[in-house]
Write a structure and sequence with these properties.
With 232 residues, the chain is of the alpha+beta class. It has helices at residues 2-16, 19-31, 49-58, 70-82, 93-100, 135-153, 160-193, 224-231; strands at 35-39, 42-48, 86-91, 107-111, 125-129, 200-201, 220-221.
């Protein structure tokens, strides 16, 4: 049994090290539109099987192979799952209840019983990226972060015009964010007085578990965390 398991792991490692396959996966990772979700108490990028299937069927990217039929697309998607680059999940019970009510909610995912499989016909399954993208880009971003930190520490030697630009940008952001928070609080108090409790302007504005653009959705309503606490 142990010999069979080792052989299987060796085969999966060889597939992961296949440069053409990994280039294709990296391109899919970069171009496929995803939604932010929570999996195992951590942030994850998720998508549906149909979305991945349609993307692979209609793509125009040179690093992704041109598939001759639907079977080849499903085989490619299955290969991503089998090699541990993509995982199959399903919505948690709380998320399902909130979505049935038509409420905006954060997607909380739990592992599917067949985590390393792909089924385009299962409309209840959601897939997450376990693959974290090209390590080269991460290294460049880390290097840029270090350079940026050093640059901030050397603010005393900056030219005067750069100091003025940074000053006004910082002041504009501070005034804008402070004004928005105050306006939210005033509107919340007014709505609370008239009996509409828990309603906020940009309710997810200070939620750090979702993407930047999702913090402005919905414009007016209850926050994602408030809805889930109320459901619990």
């Amino acid at each position: 049994m142990s010999k069979k398991l080792s052989a299987k792991q060796k085969e999966e490692n060889e597939e992961i090290q296949d440069p053409k396959f990994m280039k294709a996966v990296d391109r899919v990772f970069a171009k496929l539109q995803t939604r932010v979700a929570v999996f195992d108490e951590d942030r994850a990028d998720c998508f549906t099987g149909v979305k991945l299937f349609n993307f692979l069927k209609t793509h125009k990217h040179k690093n992704i192979p041109k598939f001759q039929n639907d079977e080849e697309i499903i085989e490619f998607a299955n290969r991503m799952c089998l090699t541990g680059l993509v995982g199959r999940c399903e919505l948690s019970q709380i998320t399902q209840k909130l979505m049935k009510k038509g409420e905006e909610t954060r997607l909380i995912l739990v592992p599917h019983k067949t985590f390393n499989t792909f089924d385009v016909n299962d409309k209840y399954s959601v897939y997450i990226w376990i693959y974290k993208g090209s390590q080269t880009s991460i290294k460049f971003m880390s290097f840029g972060l270090i350079i940026g930190t050093i640059g901030i520490c050397l603010i005393k030697v900056w030219p005067l015009w750069l100091k003025i630009v940074v000053y006004w940008l910082s002041l504009t952001m501070l005034v804008t964010l402070s004004s928005l928070i105050i306006i939210r609080l005033v509107l919340f108090c007014i709505m609370w007085t008239f009996g509409f409790r828990g309603l906020w302007l940009f309710p997810n504005l200070l939620n750090d578990e979702i993407s930047f653009f999702e913090t402005f959705k919905p414009v007016f309503g209850k926050g994602i965390n408030d809805e889930q606490q109320q459901q619990q």
